[in-house]
Design goal:
- There is one protein chain.
- The chain has 15 helices and 2 strands.
- The protein is mainly α.
- It has one domain (2-295).
- The chain has a two-stranded antiparallel ribbon with strand order 1-2.
- The two termini are 12 Å apart.
Length: 296
């Protein structure tokens, strides 16, 4: 199963991106960190594009819908990221961030109704079990009364909306593939990557110049960590895009939740944070659900 290996590369590189992002969060605002993903990731996409052109790229855009769906992806990802960042201003932001993980469920639902992706009953069980696992681990540090109290708060709805928009972004990528013909799925993934990064830079660069000028100056004067964020972000996006072209979106996103475990290990080792028994139970459920999915 090639998609399993490619998805593993996707969430592994994304975990590295998150690791370096966490280092930069202490120096610039969260939205400025997001900007580094696009700005410094673009050259990597450009190098990949040059490589496939030199190796005989053939491309035929069947319909302008290709560009529409890539634009939808790029804009939805930006809006969702913005909403995610906005959650930090709420007192219960950590709980609300957990609700953004509903993306996997939204992806399964949208994939079924929009893309007609078939999911077996056993795979559905695996998706649900893994979702329960990651939510258990994510919410483990909070008391039940606080979780229940959060259900009727604005930040919770923003968290859920964030998950939905990320899901729409993912579905948009696969929809775009229906309107472009190339000599490989790798080429499709690289083309979507470079176009979407271009759109996101066009949107974010003026914002950085006028609203985050000091952050932009700091990033340009201290490019080491931002470059690493961009490199791992671009590689991660490519692997995600490639994996989406190989199998059901729900399978890829569910298996990709293993990133949570890698990120947790990195957090424990490098940021010296403790892990609770409930988090361990959540991780066991997550792994068990993914094993069910793979068996299906």
């Amino acid at each position: 199963m090639l998609w399993v290996f490619i998805t593993f590369l996707a969430f592994s590189t994304q975990s590295m991106r998150n690791f370096f992002s966490k280092k930069l969060y202490s120096q610039v605002r969260a939205d400025s960190v997001s900007f580094t993903r696009f700005f410094f990731g673009f050259p990597i996409g450009l190098i990949a594009l040059v490589f496939i052109v030199l190796n005989g790229l053939t491309i035929h855009v069947v319909s302008s819908e290709f560009y529409i769906w890539v634009f939808v992806f790029a804009s939805m990802q930006l809006v969702a990221t913005g909403l995610l960042v906005s959650l930090f201003k709420f007192k219960n932001f950590a709980i609300s961030l957990s609700y953004a993980k509903t993306e996997t469920i939204f992806v399964a639902i949208l994939g079924f109704f929009i893309l007609s992706e078939k999911i077996s009953f056993l795979a559905i069980i695996g998706i649900i079990v893994s979702f329960i696992g990651i939510m258990t681990a994510s919410l483990s540090k909070f008391e039940a009364k606080n979780i229940l109290k959060s259900l009727n708060q604005k930040s919770t709805y923003i968290g859920l909306l964030t998950g939905l928009l990320f899901a729409i972004a993912v579905v948009s990528i696969k929809l775009s593939y229906n309107f472009i013909e190339t000599n490989s799925n790798v080429n499709k993934s690289i083309i979507v990557l470079i176009i979407s990064l271009s759109i996101q830079i066009v949107f974010m660069l003026p914002y950085m110049i006028f609203k985050r000028r000091n952050d932009l100056k700091f990033i340009l004067k201290n490019p080491k960590v931002p470059i690493l964020i961009g490199v791992f972000s671009s590689l991660g996006s490519f692997f995600w895009f490639f994996a989406f072209s190989l199998t059901s979106l729900a399978y890829v996103r569910t298996f990709g939740q293993l990133e949570f475990i890698i990120s947790l290990i990195i957090t424990i080792k490098y940021f010296k944070e403790n892990i609770s028994k409930i988090e361990i139970i959540g991780m066991i459920l997550l792994i068990f659900g993914i094993l069910i999915l793979l068996y299906a």
